[in-house]
Amino acid sequence: MAMNTAPYDYGLGRRKSATARARLTAGKGKVTINGKSASDYLSDNKTLLAEITDPLALVGKQKEFDVSVLVKGGGLSGQVDAIKQAIAKAITVSAPDLRAPLKKAGFMKRDPREKERKKYGLRSARKREQYSKR
């Protein structure tokens, strides 16, 4: 099997309208999102911070990689899910043997749910005017 000689491992993740591009480099576990530290970008939200590092924690490599992420589009929740998938895909570039546990945990699968479009004659995607019997 060919060894990876690139200075970093790359992964792309998507969720709703958010797209995240993650780069894993050898380091001490520092996470950077769009040039800011993860805690600054996510306003110190402990739940979202923990969610981002879930793929690394699952394979026990939280302190082995520095993560640099560029994320665009969507809201915070969609961005966090996109980042999670991007990190999981980047892990499998250098260590294909870790794909199975990440896939079993659901980090490799893209969530296909998108916002439903508004239809004409309705207020929103499904909301209608109130029915008047008379």
TrEMBL record:
Belongs to the universal ribosomal protein uS9 family. Keywords: Ribonucleoprotein, Ribosomal protein. PANTHER family: RIBOSOMAL PROTEIN S9, SMALL RIBOSOMAL SUBUNIT PROTEIN US9M. Residues 104-134 are annotated as: Disordered. The keyword Ribosomal protein applies. It comes from Candidatus Southlakia epibionticum. The gene is rpsI. This is Small ribosomal subunit protein uS9. Residues 108-119 have a biased composition (Basic and acidic residues). InterPro entries: Ribosomal_Su5_D2-typ_SF, Ribosomal_uS9, Ribosomal_uS9_bac/plastid, Ribosomal_uS9_CS, Ribsml_uS5_D2-typ_fold_subgr. One of its GO terms (cellular component) is ribosome. PROSITE patterns: RIBOSOMAL_S9.
